[in-house]
Amino acid sequence: MTQAREPKQAGASQDARPGGGAVPLRPRVYFRRLAGNPDLPLPERATPHAAGFDIRSAEDEVVLQPGEIRLVSTGLVMELPEGVECQVRPRSGLALKHGITMPNSPGTIDPDYRGELRIILQNLGGAPVTLARGERIAQLVFARFETPDIAESGELSATGRGEGGFGSTGTA
């Protein structure tokens, strides 16, 4: 069964505040489940103030050997509004307990991508790690981005720091 989608209104939604008055419009991200994944929840925040939305594995079982890098399916396709990117980040609990991370962290999903969301995971730990279907494997953080005009210049403005980098401001 497919649910009807609300009109887009520039990819935004409006919330009402207790006591009246509406808060400004905020972006809306649409997800489509791929066939065979009706049991998997959409990405969701673990707490009301969490920045990241947990996303889950759609694979029956993933066994990551030490040092292995693997692409893990989520069974979801996403539509981002224009000007919003999705950053894919590791989950801290998996990193601390098992050494599971993402070698390209944070990964970036652009608003024009319409393929399946798949997560690159790596096991930096010393033992194999098994991830079950429906297990939270990464988190999605949404951010607005700018697309500036790029121009060449023969000279750039000077700063106090100049060309100093890689520790030039100190270590303490």
Q: TL;DR of this structure?
A:
With 172 residues, the chain is mostly beta strands. Helix content is 4%, strand content 34%.
Commentary on this structure:
With 172 residues, the protein is mainly beta. The chain has a domain at 51-144: Deoxyuridine triphosphatase (dUTPase) (Deoxyuridine 5'-Triphosphate Nucleotidohydrolase, Chain A). Helices cover 4% and strands 34% of the residues. The protein has one helix at 92-98, and strands at 12-13, 26-27, 30-33, 53-56, 61-64, 69-79, 84-89, 100-101, 107-109, 116-123, 129-132, 136-144. The strands form four sheets. A four-stranded antiparallel beta sheet has the order 3-6-10-8. A four-stranded antiparallel beta sheet has the order 4-12-7-9, with no helix packed on it. A two-stranded antiparallel sheet has the order 1-2. Residues 7-11 have low confidence and may be disordered.
SSE topology:
Blueprint: E1 12-13, E2 26-27, E3 30-33, E4 53-56, E5 61-64, E6 69-79, E7 84-89, H1 92-98, E8 100-101, E9 107-109, E10 116-123, E11 129-132, E12 136-144
Antiparallel strand pairs: 1-2, 3-6, 4-12, 5-11, 6-10, 7-9, 7-12, 8-10
